[in-house]
Write a structure and sequence with these properties.
This protein is mainly alpha-helical and 98 residues long. Helix content is 81%, strand content 0%. The chain is globular, with a radius of gyration of 12 Å.
């Protein structure tokens, strides 16, 4: 699982044009926040990682992780921007993984 997290973070840093260490930091820039939330959502939904485990891996509180996941989940349901952002990210990630 560690390699999945590392690979996903490395890809997200390139995709969102942020430094990889920013994904683990307290940075709140727009691209960095979207990268973090997309990563957390994907790991939670696709790999079944618990909010507690994600909090440990990313040095955040469980509430922070939960709020990020909820933002993306609700955004995907109600806003085309987040739906497209997530779908494009996952499509590119799967292409890169081949």
């Amino acid at each position: 699982m560690k390699s999945n997290i590392a690979d996903l973070c490395k890809f997200a840093s390139r995709y969102f044009d942020v430094e990889e260490n920013e994904i683990y930091s307290h940075s709140r820039t727009g691209n960095c926040v979207n990268a973090k939330h997309i990563i957390w959502y994907h790991l939670h939904v696709e790999y079944g990682m618990s909010v507690g485990k994600l909090a440990q891996e990313f040095f955040k509180t469980r509430r922070t992780i939960f709020m990020g996941i909820s933002k993306i989940r609700n955004g995907i349901k109600t806003q085309r921007y987040y739906r497209d952002l997530y779908n494009n990210f996952i499509t590119e990630y799967k292409k890169a993984a081949r």
